[in-house]
């Protein structure tokens, strides 16, 4: 449904988006994940035919962006990061305006209007002036405007930013529902959002795609090492760590302050089997043998944190 | 066509739901009313030479030009600058409308609002008609001249509004640009080189308006403002394409 090839945006000598390529099949909800300034918004703006790309091609629903930018625009419903609406207009007035410039046939407008108002739960503010609405309602008006022309593709730039927790839950539920009838690209820097909403994730950093896969695959496949924690009774810490360190797949053994051992491992399942065997052979009793898969957060940090920024980022995370 | 109409309509809603529109309307009526009174008082003096009062009202006094030079930038300053500042431009230009449609729609809305400002001056015509016989030809031509000037001035205002992100800056640029557009023809009176004098006479907006107010509709006087309007609208589209993402 969306085909991006070598998409690049350069401002003077600074490359904001560097040769980004990806494909989104029909009906998929794709998450763009990346730190602020990674190039997510610029990429989305180029796909929506707002910014002209420096290089690369984009195809949406079979239409080429360079040849038919208006055709591409009419097939995309776009919710920008800062949903800016005309404050002096009434909600209904605004949606009618959007319907007209999106080219919705006049006959279909009442039906589309009723649909988006119902879908985005705007019934009680329909006659209200947009300037007086809360942020959550404005976000929903923006989403209604993006849906009014029945676009096959929805592009949502940080749709939950600045909302309160209850509104966030509602918007996410709505996006999941919309994902059934639309192909969706959603950008965010909130990780749980990706896990809840998206079937696939692209991690973007410094204008490049650094990872591409399902949230699960990213967690296990790209993370490198998993951690296995072992608690043994009847074993001497130093000797045990010596023996366990020899098991294939164990990269490193740490003795935790409470006497438990933590192994950094490549293949958790095989290692745990071996650890159990070794304990049985030596008559140690296993009190704990558990594996923790790194969270998407770890993956994200590992992929998007450059060496010099490591200390700063971890400080920020632990502070948060 | 429907998209263009929607943009014009939205812009008119914006005009009439902002206090600025009513401030401009009031100020415009106040100044024009004062000028009209001044003209009638002046012509009532038996020592003055007889003249058509509407000829004076339509461009015959400095007040007319001062008002236009100030009022048009205030009408047009918001059009594109505010869309860019607030970020609504992004939503507008990700809908299937071209930059040309956006520029044209906003320009037409500003022009319609400008014509609306002049609407109440029909009362003056009515007042004059009830006291004396009126030659309707020059009146119609005068309004045609005003409409043409509106096209030209509004296109300049749209252009500066595309360049500036700040409304006030857009208004000041528009004022400066309009002073140039207005004054360039007046230099006619200062030069002696006949070719240059001719060229400048072609651009003399004061004479242009005076011709219309006299009831003289010369095609040259139509072509000049219309072609200049086209040029500024073209530049506005180019400017919008260049600045939209920044």
Task: Walk me through the structure.
The complex is a heterodimer of chains A (320) and B (246). Chain A has twelve helices and 14 strands. Chain A is elongated, with a radius of gyration of 25 Å. Residues 307-320 of chain A have low confidence and may be disordered. With 320 residues, chain A is of the alpha/beta class. Chain A folds into two domains: 2-220, 3-Layer(aba) Sandwich (Rossmann fold); 224-292, 2-Layer Sandwich (Alpha-Beta Plaits). Chain A has a six-stranded mixed beta sheet with strand order 6-7-8-3-9-10, sandwiched between helices. In chain A, strands 2-1-4-5 form a four-stranded antiparallel beta sheet. With 246 residues, chain B is mainly α. Chain B has one domain (2-243). In chain B, helix 1 (2-16) packs across helix 7 and helix 7 (99-118) packs across helix 9. Chain B is globular, with a radius of gyration of 19 Å. The two termini of chain B are 29 Å apart. The mean pLDDT of chain B is 90. Chains A and B meet through helix 2 and helix 3 of A and helix 1 and helix 6 of B.
Please write out the topology.
The complex is a heterodimer of chains A (320) and B (246).
Chain A: E1 2-11, E2 14-24, E3 29-33, H1 40-47, E4 55-60, E5 63-64, H2 69-74, E6 76-79, H3 91-101, H4 109-119, H5 135-147, E7 153-157, H6 165-178, E8 183-188, H7 191-197, E9 200-205, E10 208-213, H8 215-221, E11 226-233, H9 237-244, E12 250-255, E13 261-265, H10 268-282, E14 285-292, H11 296-304, H12 310-319
Parallel strand pairs in A: 3-8, 3-9, 6-7, 7-8
Antiparallel strand pairs in A: 1-2, 1-4, 4-5, 9-10, 11-13, 11-14, 12-13
Chain B: H1 2-16, H2 19-44, H3 53-57, H4 62-76, H5 78-86, H6 88-92, H7 99-118, H8 122-131, H9 136-163, H10 167-183, H11 194-202, H12 205-214, H13 219-243
Helix pairs in contact in B: 1-7, 2-4, 4-9, 4-10, 5-9, 7-9, 7-13, 9-10, 9-12, 9-13
């Amino acid at each position: 449904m969306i085909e991006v090839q070598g998409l690049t945006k350069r401002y003077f000598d600074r490359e904001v988006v560097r040769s980004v390529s990806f494909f989104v099949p029909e009906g998929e909800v794709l998450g763009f994940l990346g730190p602020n300034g990674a190039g997510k918004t610029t990429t989305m703006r180029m796909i929506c035919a707002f910014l002209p790309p420096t290089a690369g091609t984009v195809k949406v629903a079979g239409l080429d962006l360079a040849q038919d930018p208006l055709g591409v625009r009419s097939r995309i419903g776009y919710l920008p990061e800062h949903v800016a609406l005309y404050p002096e207009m009434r909600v209904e007035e605004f949606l009618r305006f959007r319907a007209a410039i999106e080219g919705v046939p006049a006959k279909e407008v009442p039906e589309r209007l009723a649909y988006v108002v119902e879908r985005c739960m705007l019934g009680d503010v329909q006659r209200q002036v947009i300037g007086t609405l809360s942020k959550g309602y404005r976000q929903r008006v923006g989403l209604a405007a993006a849906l009014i022309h029945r676009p096959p593709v929805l592009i949502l730039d940080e749709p939950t930013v600045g909302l309160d927790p209850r509104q966030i839950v509602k918007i996410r539920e709505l996006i999941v529902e919309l994902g059934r009838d639309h192909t969706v690209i959603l950008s965010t820097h909130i990780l749980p959002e990706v896990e809840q909403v998206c079937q696939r994730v692209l991690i973007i950093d410094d204008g490049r795609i650094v990872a591409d896969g399902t949230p699960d695959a990213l967690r296990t496949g790209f993370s490198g090492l998993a951690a296995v924690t072992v608690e043994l009774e009847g074993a001497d810490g130093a000797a045990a760590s010596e023996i366990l360190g020899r098991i294939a797949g164990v990269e490193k053994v740490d003795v935790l302050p409470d006497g438990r051992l933590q192994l950094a491992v490549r293949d958790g399942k095989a290692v745990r089997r071996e650890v159990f065997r070794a304990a049985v052979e030596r008559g140690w009793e296993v009190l704990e043998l558990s594996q923790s898969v790194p969270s998407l957060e770890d993956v994200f940090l590992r992929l998007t944190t450059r060496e010099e920024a490591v200390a700063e980022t971890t400080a920020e995370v632990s502070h948060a | 066509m429907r998209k263009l109409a929607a943009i014009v309509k939205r812009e008119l809603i914006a005009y009439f739901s902002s206090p600025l529109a009513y401030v401009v309307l009031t100020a415009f009526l106040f100044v024009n009313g004062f000028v009209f009174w001044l003209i009638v008082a002046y012509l009532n003096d038996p020592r003055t030479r007889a003249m058509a009062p509407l000829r004076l009202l339509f461009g015959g006094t400095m007040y007319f030009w001062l008002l236009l030079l100030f009022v048009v930038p205030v009408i047009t300053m918001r059009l594109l600058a505010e869309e860019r500042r607030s970020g609504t431009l992004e939503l507008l230009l990700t809908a299937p409308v071209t930059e040309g449609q956006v520029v044209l729609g906003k320009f037409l809305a500003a022009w319609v609002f400008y014509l609306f400002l002049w609407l109440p001056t029909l009362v003056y015509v009515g007042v004059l008609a009830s006291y004396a016989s009126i030659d309707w030809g020059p009146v119609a031509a005068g309004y045609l001249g005003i409409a043409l000037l509106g096209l030209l001035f509004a296109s300049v205002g749209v252009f500066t509004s595309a360049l500036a992100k700040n409304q006030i800056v857009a208004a000041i640029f528009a004022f400066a640009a309009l002073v140039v557009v207005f004054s360039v023809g007046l230099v006619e009176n200062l030069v002696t080189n006949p070719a240059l004098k001719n060229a400048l006479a072609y651009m003399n907006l004061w004479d242009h308006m005076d011709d219309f107010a006299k009831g003289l509709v010369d095609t040259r006087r139509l072509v000049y403002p219309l072609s200049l309007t086209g040029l500024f609208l073209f530049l506005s589209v180019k400017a919008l394409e260049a600045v939209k993402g920044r």
